[in-house]
Amino acid sequence: MTDKELKNLKDMLWHSADVLRASAHLAANKYGQPILGLIFLRYADILYKQHKTITEE
Question: For the N6 adenine-specific DNA methyltransferase N-terminal domain, which residue ranges apply (predicted)?
Answer without folding.
Answer: 9-52
